[in-house]
Recover the amino acids of this structure.
């Protein structure tokens, strides 16, 4: 179905390109998708622009395709993917909240073809059936105002310290980081993904603090909001630092949860072949170094060798804690129900 | 042919409503009341047996009433003065009142953030004036949502009322005064009574927009200001529970309809009673 509108010459060229690929990497791929259009979901804002510059612009130049990102938060992107099931208008999706597992189980994604670098990615960071792959990882931890807090926080337990009272913020549970914060609080107080009770107990003690929904509120929170400490990530800490705010990132002793940034191809996508090649570009070490340099996101491809100065600022992927996303996804709905009643009320 | 003229005039609008409103609403209704086995009221039961959702519905209605009351309180005098003013600035001032409508909800909400946070302008001003003795946070509260929505919906109230006041003949007031009514009595007995239709229309417009608003409650209200619209978004987009989201949407629609009919009947009924007295 997807191949019918590709004319024969293009199909032959693509075949020829893939056949010669092992002999002449890069060069053989040249302009194989000339005139084709790829539509991807994107994260919006500067993140989307940086991904465009680091991945899609070089990809377009190399392949002749032209790629557009449509800004959408992960949850909204999944809803769009579901709404367009069978006739997707968006070829590939980028997720940051574990939505790729749901997309696969609902039959919304398909095995990717033409992603030759998939073999280089550790098994934990990709789907065994090739439905999705993690192309970058964000490290979560504690973001704090270093003018107000002189000794860096060391643990998620620090959120209960009385001296920070009234200056704490944390994301709502509908934000992916909100769920992870709940899980990490549970872990800090003896619980786990299976035993979330200690997490709710601890969070109840700070339920009167500032609760926000989106990362776009961060600059105002640290600016006009008089917030000193919150659970967030390396990427946004870097953005705030670039905006001139006196913030720093601390890795908690309970571990920095990894947030996997994944890519997948919609089932029945008209440009599935182009999407596969674009995702292969996302896994390319050069692209991953650029992403690390401009956003402090961790590379997922172990072949990526960061320059020493960058390596000091970006935690390596094997140093991050992988939470049990399957268990979290299975319980998310009931946790949200409970959170709405016990924390946000 | 003349017999069909009304039908023809009505047809385009009816067609657009059928395709873009009635059909989607009917599909929502169907989605909320079906499961694999067939017809079910489980989604509605889930709503009505849970005090959490009652509380949310109450909060939504409270938001609607509060915003309507504020816009009426501020809108009636403003619209009256603008309609009666002889100044050549009047039309320019009327244009100025519509400015909040020209700014996107997202940009407006970021503006409120700067004002509403604990270290923001509002808190600092109240502290400096000695009205409060510790910083106050209006951001992420229902109060903040009410203020922000009242600001953006006020122009709709003023525009609606302005048109009505403008159409009321000034001579009627003069006639009442010439028969011995004090100006304030003439205003109340004649002008405001004649304007009651406009007041109903403006209030219903503001009320229905306030309780169905999504962007402002979500951005200014944050996680705690849970209203029906944000809950529908959460169920549909975050949790992908479309049947329950459809049920919430249907309940919201029915409640708006009921409140609107009751409010309209109340005001018009009162006007009728007074007229027959």
């Amino acid at each position: 179905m997807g191949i019918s509108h590709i004319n024969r010459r293009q199909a032959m060229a693509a075949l020829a390109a893939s056949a010669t690929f092992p002999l002449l990497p890069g060069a053989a791929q040249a302009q194989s998708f000339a005139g084709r259009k790829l539509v991807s979901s994107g994260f919006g804002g500067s993140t989307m622009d940086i991904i465009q510059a680091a991945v899609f612009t070089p990809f377009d130049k190399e392949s002749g395709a032209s790629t557009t990102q449509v800004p959408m938060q992960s949850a909204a992107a999944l809803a769009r993917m579901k709404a367009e099931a069978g006739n997707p208008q968006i070829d590939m999706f980028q997720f940051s909240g574990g939505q790729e597992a749901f997309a696969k189980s609902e039959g919304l994604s398909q095995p990717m073809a033409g992603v030759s670098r998939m073999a280089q990615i550790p098994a934990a960071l990709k789907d065994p059936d090739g439905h999705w792959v993690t192309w970058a990882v964000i490290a979560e931890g504690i973001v704090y105002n270093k003018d107000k807090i002189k000794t860096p926080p060391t643990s998620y337990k620090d959120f209960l310290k009385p001296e920070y009272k009234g200056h704490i913020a944390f994301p709502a549970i509908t934000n992916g980081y909100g769920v992870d914060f709940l899980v990490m609080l549970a872990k800090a107080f003896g619980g786990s993904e299976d035993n979330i009770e200690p997490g709710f107990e601890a969070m109840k003690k700070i339920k009167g603090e500032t609760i926000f929904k989106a990362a776009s509120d961060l600059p105002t929170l640290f600016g006009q909001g008089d917030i000193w400490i919150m659970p967030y990530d390396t990427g946004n800490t870097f953005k705030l630092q670039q905006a001139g705010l006196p913030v720093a990132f601390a890795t908690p002793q309970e571990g920095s949860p990894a947030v996997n940034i994944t890519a997948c191809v919609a089932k029945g996508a008209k440009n599935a072949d182009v999407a596969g090649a674009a995702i292969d570009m996302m896994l390319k070490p050069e692209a991953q170094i650029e992403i690390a340099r401009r956003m402090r996101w961790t590379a997922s491809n172990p072949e990526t060798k960061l320059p020493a100065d960058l390596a000091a600022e970006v935690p390596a992927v094997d140093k991050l804690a992988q939470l049990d996303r399957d268990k979290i996804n299975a319980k998310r709905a009931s946790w949200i129900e409970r959170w709405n009643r016990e924390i946000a009320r | 042919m003349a017999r069909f003229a009304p039908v023809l005039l009505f047809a385009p609008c009816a067609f657009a409503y059928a395709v873009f409103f009635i059909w989607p609403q009917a599909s929502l209704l169907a989605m909320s009341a079906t499961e694999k086995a067939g017809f079910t009221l489980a989604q509605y039961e889930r709503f009505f047996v849970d005090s959490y959702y009652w509380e949310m519905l109450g909060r939504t209605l409270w938001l609607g009433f509060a915003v309507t009351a504020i816009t009426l309180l501020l809108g009636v005098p403003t619209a009256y003065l603008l309609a009666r003013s002889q100044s050549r600035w009047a039309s320019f001032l009327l244009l100025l009142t519509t400015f909040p409508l020209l700014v996107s909800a997202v940009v407006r909400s970021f503006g409120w953030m700067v004002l509403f946070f604990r270290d923001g302008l509002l808190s600092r001003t109240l502290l400096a004036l000695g009205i409060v003795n510790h910083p106050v946070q209006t951001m992420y509260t229902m109060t903040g949502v009410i203020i922000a929505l009242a600001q953006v919906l006020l122009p709709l109230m003023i525009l609606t009322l302005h048109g009505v006041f403008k159409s009321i003949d000034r001579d009627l007031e003069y006639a009442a005064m010439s028969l011995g009514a004090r100006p304030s009595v003439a205003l109340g007995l004649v002008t405001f009574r004649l304007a009651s239709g406009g007041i109903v229309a403006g209030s219903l417009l503001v009320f229905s927009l306030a309780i169905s608003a999504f962007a402002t409650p979500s951005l200014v209200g944050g996680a705690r200001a849970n209203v029906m619209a944000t809950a529908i978004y959460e169920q549909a987009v975050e949790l992908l529970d479309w049947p329950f989201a459809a049920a919430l949407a249907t309940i919201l629609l029915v409640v708006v309809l009921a409140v609107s009919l009751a409010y309209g009947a109340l005001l018009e009924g009162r006007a009728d009673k007074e007229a027959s007295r």
Chain B has 14 helices and two strands. The radius of gyration of chain B is 23 Å.
